Amino acid sequence: MKRTTWLFYGLVSLTILAIITFTSHGQQYLGKDFKESDHFHMIVESQMNEVYPTLINRFDVKKEIKNLEVTENEIEEYRTYYGSQMDQIRDVRYQYEGLIEEATSLSEDEILAELVIERDAKIAEIRKNFADDEVVRTKIMEAKKQALEEYDRKISNSLPLMKALQRQMAYELTNEETGEHYSFGDVEVKDGIKKEYNSKNGLLYLSKVKQDYMNVEDGELKPLYILNMNDLVENQSSQFSGIVAMPKTTLASEHMQGLTNFNQNKAYFYSLWMLGLIALGGAIWLFSKRKAEVLSSPTLLFIRERKLEIRLLLIFIPLVLAFAFSTIVSDQLSYYEYYYSNLRFAAYAGMMVLLFVVFLTLTLIQAVWLFKDSRKNGIRTMWEKSILKKWVLIIQDLFLNRRLGTQILLILLVVFLAGLGLAGTFVVPELLIIYVPLFMFVLMPSLYLLLKRVAAYNKLALATEQMAKGHQIADVHIGGKSVLAKHAKHLNMLREGVRMSQSEQAKSERLKTELITNVSHDLRTPLTSIITYTDLLKKVDLTVEERLSYVAILDRKSQRLKTLIEDLFEVSKMASGNMELHKQRVDLTQLMQQALAEHEEDIQAAGLDFRVTAPENPLHAFVDGQKWWRVLDNLIVNALKYTLAGTRVYVTLKQVDGYAQFVVKNVTKYELGENVDELFERFKRADTSRHTEGSGLGLAIAQSIVDLHGGSMRIEVDGDLFKVTVSIITD
Question: Could you identify which of 28, 504, 551, 652 might form a hypothetical disulfide with 663, taking C-beta atoms 3.0 to 4.6 angstroms apart as the criterion?
Answer without folding.
Answer: 652
